[in-house]
Write a structure and sequence with these properties.
By secondary structure, the protein is an alpha/beta fold. The protein folds into two domains: 282 residues, UDP-N-acetylmuramoyl-L-alanine:D-glutamate ligase (3-Layer(aba) Sandwich); 147 residues, Mur ligase, C-terminal domain (Protein-Tyrosine Phosphatase, Chain A, Alpha-Beta Complex). Helix content is 38%, strand content 16%. The chain has 15 helices and 18 strands. The strands form three sheets. An eight-stranded mixed β-sheet has the order 4-3-2-5-1-6-7-8, sandwiched between helices. Helix 3 crosses helix 9 and helix 7 packs parallel to helix 8. The two termini are 39 Å apart. The C terminus is likely disordered.
């Protein structure tokens, strides 16, 4: 499902942090979120892939699992998955209609003319209602923004986790790692076990303090969690045991880190009584399916949903170990409010040219404005200004020996959709000489290029 009129209407409300609206609506529905055990995952980066790994492993162990992701890459169905499959269009439309009728009844019951919900709040409640109605054995939820005031924080989870803490969404979460860590640790519940990934020292201190105050037993890297990569396979260890010989399909050192957090969560679940043999965990990790993360869509075309500085550094680390091709072009589009120069800077040593573009998302930055920002930062770049990914993808792909599409998950999703529609049909990487009419280097003025 690409669009739905109810969701289009709700999208106009923007982002509104807070839990009271969602709590009130869920109470009106009979609190479906308590009908199943839930696992709650926060983090600046990695929470989507970690959540998908956990759900995949639970499925391999025989559990009927719900998975709630945000944002989606191509279709909203991806946000609500049961037993590893996104909800189908007909079921989704039916559930949306049902929940919207409940929304109007709830609005009248609280004396509101129009029910005060955002798109994300509606989708969060919808996933809880669907999972309860579908009889899932457990559900994995990733937060949308932060944690403490995120709509998903109405859950009463059996395990919580924080994958990473970095500088992102400072306007909403606070200016420092300390502030952001406190917001993410806001998902902790009294006495509920916690698993974390590698965190900066100031974030680690805040998270540890929150865990101690709430009596949460915490597993963290170095003390309880370890990982090792040898001869193309990963091994992970926790106080519960070891999982070895994992051929992880998701690329990058950071994915090994995410898998370590996932194994920590799964071993915690095992201590709570879940039947999770290590062979099921291995199968789940090896069969995890989540797109837009260092995904090769076609020969010489890689997409990655990186959208902040830490994600760019992880992408750069992966590129540093990749064989260098003659001409690698970065096709980048970003949302407003992102630090584009800081994002691109770690990638500069591994690329030969940057083409700025945009996807159809309403918050996408204009390609000329993005290029101007990069040039003004004084980065040593060959720049070209594109128009939109709809036209730029095929042109860049034909010119480059390798094309890397990044800057947001929406960019990755747009590229996936275009490839599926056949825009690269008949094209080969580097098969067309660059035209160069939009190109300029840092000595040129992008306003006149």
């Amino acid at each position: 499902m690409i669009r739905h009129p109810v969701l289009d209407q709700l999208a106009q409300a923007g982002v509104k942090l807070g839990l009271e609206r969602v709590r009130s609506f869920l109470a009106h529905l009979g609190d479906p979120q308590v009908a199943f055990p839930s696992i709650h995952i926060a983090g600046t980066n990695g929470k989507g892939s970690t959540s998908a790994m956990i759900a995949s492993c639970l499925g391999q162990a025989g559990y009927r699992t719900g998975l709630n992701l945000s944002p989606h890459l191509e279709q909203v169905n991806e946000r609500i998955q049961i037993a590893g499959t996104p909800i189908d269009d007909a079921s989704l439309a039916s559930w949306i209609g049902t929940l919207d009728r409940h929304r109007m009844d709830w609005a009248r019951s609280i004396g509101e003319e129009r029910a005060p919900l955002t798109y994300f709040e509606f989708m969060t409640v919808l996933s809880m209602l669907v999972f309860a109605g579908s009889g899932v054995d457990a559900a994995v939820f990733e937060t949308g923004l932060g944690g403490r005031l995120d709509a998903t924080n109405v859950l009463k989870p059996v395990i919580t986790a924080i994958t990473t803490v970095g500088l992102d969404h400072q306007a909403e979460l606070g200016p420092t790692l300390t502030h952001i860590a406190a917001e993410k640790a806001g998902i902790f519940k009294r006495g509920v076990p916690v698993v974390t990934g590698l965190l900066p020292a100031e974030a680690r201190d805040v998270v540890g303090l929150h865990a101690r105050r709430l009596g949460c037993d915490l597993w963290a890297p170095g003390q309880q969690l370890r990982r090792e990569y040898r001869k193309g396979r990963w091994s992970f260890s926790t106080p519960e045991g070891s999982v070895t010989g994992v051929d992880l399909p998701l690329q990058g050192e950071h994915m090994g880190h995410n898998a370590m957090v996932a194994v920590g969560v799964l071993h915690r679940l095992r201590r709570l009584g879940f039947h999770l043999p290590d062979d099921a965990i291995v199968r789940g990790l090896e069969q995890v399916d989540i797109g837009g993360r260092l995904e090769e869509l076609a020969p010489g075309l890689i997409v990655d949903g990186a959208h902040n500085i830490d994600a760019a550094k992880a992408l750069a680390a992966w590129l540093s170990g990749r064989e260098r091709v003659e001409r690698r072009i970065l096709l980048v589009g970003m949302g407003r409010g992102r630090d584009a120069a800081a994002f691109v800077e770690p990638l500069v040593p591994y690329i030969d040219e940057v083409v700025t573009t945009r996807c159809a998302h309403p918050k996408a930055l204009d390609p000329m404005e993005l290029a101007t920002t990069l040039q003004d930062a004084g980065l040593d770049l060959l720049l070209a200004v594109g128009r939109s990914i709809d036209t730029d993808l095929a042109e860049v792909y034909a010119e480059a020996d390798e094309t890397l599409v990044t800057g947001s998950l929406f960019m990755a999703g747009a590229a996936k959709s275009l490839v599926r529609q056949g825009v690269l049909e008949g094209l080969q990487p580097g098969s067309v000489e660059p035209l160069g009419e939009h190109a300029y280097d840092e000595g040129d003025d992008p306003e006149t290029a």
